[in-house]
Amino acid sequence: MGAADIVPGVSGGTIALLLGIYDRLIEEIKAISTALSKLGRGDFRGFRRRIGGVNWSFLISLLVGIILAVVLLVSWLRDQIRDHPVIVSSVFFGLIAASTLVTRREISQWCRSRYLIFVGSAALTFGLLGIRSGSIENPTTIVVLFAGALAICAMILPGISGSFVLLTIGLYDHLIGVIERRDFAVLTVYALGAAVGLCLFSHFLHWLLSRYRDYVIAGLLGLMTGSLRVLWPWPTTDGGIEDTRLEIPHIDEVLGASIAAAMGALGLVGLVQIASRFRNFDKDDALETPS
């Protein structure tokens, strides 16, 4: 999830959905948010009860993995995006395209209304991703706070990456520079904004998933499909993944891009197979454990 969130156009939420931990992740985040709200109201007993029910081993292991990926891979991935934009775009294009096909199984039954939500969401996402602002070099603290909140909301939505939201509002380069310089003061502001945004948005998303899951997944599939615009390997300039203006493929690059896209799709299928085996192992282990 951490590696995915570094790349504009790829969402860590997509990985969570494919690996079967998306609903669980949203539920745990909501539980923490509820505990914090009780603490804010002075209900210490309710806070202890809620916070004690959180699956910390799941969340901490996930968070450690994300942080390690960001710290270790951010510079390398940024260099690859700059030096090999077509190949990198193609790999992730194939990965997300395969993701949309695999994720269709998350919907119990397709019907006209769900197809309409899927198509509408894809079209809206495709159009909105063409909008970009210029880079902001010295944002104010309030701007950074709101950017953190907005990016984290996108980060947990399959199909919309927090990286691309930051790129759209002109703060992607600023955040990457902050991470590379280890500027912990500014990182703390981003983190505070992310924490507030995550707490508020998780309640709304959990409510939607608990009542209208198939419709929500149809909308998320649309987000994933529309986001392929970001990963089209041939933008009108040399901006690579950071450019959403589209151009026809370059003939001399089509074969290499196709192979890279196929590798991305196969890698995704392999990842899903591994995750499925782990889920089956956990289920068998739970059945064998005496009550």
In short:
The protein is an all-alpha fold and 291 residues long. Helix content is 76%, strand content 0%. It has one domain (2-288).
Taken as a percent bin, the fraction of beta residues is under 5%
Question: How large, in whole angstroms, is the Cα Rg?
Answer: 20 Å
Portion of residues in helices?
Answer: over 70%
Largest sheet: none
Low-confidence stretches: none
Order of helices and strands: HHHHHHHHHHHHH
* Count of strand segments: 0
Class based on secondary structure composition and strand pairing: mainly alpha
Domain module tally = 1
Q: Work out the helix count.
A: 13
Overall residue-averaged pLDDT value: 79
Shape: globular
Describe this structure in words.
- The longest helix is centred in the last third of the chain and has 43 residues, at 184-226.
- The chain has helices at 2-6, 12-18, 22-40, 44-52, 56-83, 85-103, 112-128, 141-155, 162-168, 172-181, 184-226, 228-231, 251-288.
- The mean pLDDT is 79.
- It has 13 helices and no strands.
- It has one domain.
- It is 76% helix and 0% strand.
- Helix 5 packs antiparallel against helix 6.
- By secondary structure, it is mainly alpha-helical.
- The radius of gyration is 20 Å and the shape is globular.
Please supply descriptive tags for the structure shown above:
291 residues; mainly alpha; 13 helices
Spell out the blueprint of helices and strands.
Blueprint: H1 2-6, H2 12-18, H3 22-40, H4 44-52, H5 56-83, H6 85-103, H7 112-128, H8 141-155, H9 162-168, H10 172-181, H11 184-226, H12 228-231, H13 251-288
